[in-house]
Amino acid sequence: MVKLIISWLINAAALALAAAVVPGIETTGDQAWVAVALVAVIFGLVNALIRPLVKLLTCLINVLTLGLFTLVINALMLWLSSWIAAQLGVDFRVEGFVPAFLGALLISVVSFILSLVFREDDRRKRARRDRR
Fold first, then answer.
1. Per the domain annotation, does 114 fall within a domain?
2. What is the C-alpha separation between 62 and 65, in angstroms, rounded?
3. Which residue of 5, 48, 67, 131 sits 20 to 30 Å from the alpha carbon of 39, by its own alpha carbon?
4. What confidence tens digit (pLDDT) does each residue in 47-98 have?
5. Domain that residue 106 falls in
6. Is the dihedral of CA 18, 16, 88, 78 positive or negative?
């Protein structure tokens, strides 16, 4: 449960940074942090439920592009998350493919770095487990 909350917070931080830095990705309204938190949940669900199916269907093109097509898939998942958020009345917008691509790239890098920072070292886990 703690890993899920940390993952959600990392996604929310990466989405907030993308909204602040990338032109074409924006949160509107008085409570932007609520919008980012809700979009982090939507983005997590889209990545957990839809992304694996899309990656399976595009496996051949992904192999042919040496995995670079994954960047396009990430952009489409962010764009889809924005569309779902708009349908639910959440004030988060991605205005086109290029902002989605740049935002997905930034979100991937920030999520990777924050995951490294907040990941518990495997050696510490084993040492704690062995002490028990």
1. yes
2. 5
3. 67
4. 999 999 999 999 999 999 999 999 999 999 999 999 999 999 999 999 999 9
5. 2-127
6. positive
CA distance 125 to 21: 36
| CA distances to 3, 62, 91 from 67, in Å | 27, 5, 32
Measured distance CA(36)–CA(49) in Å, rounded: 20
Is 132 among the domain residues?
Answer: no
| pLDDT tens digits, one per residue of 91-122 | 999 999 999 999 999 999 999 999 888 876 65
Identify the residue whose tokens are 């449960």. 1
Q: CA-CA distance, 63 to 22, in Å (whole number)?
A: 29
Helices 32-49 and 2-21 cross at an angle (nearest 10°) of 120
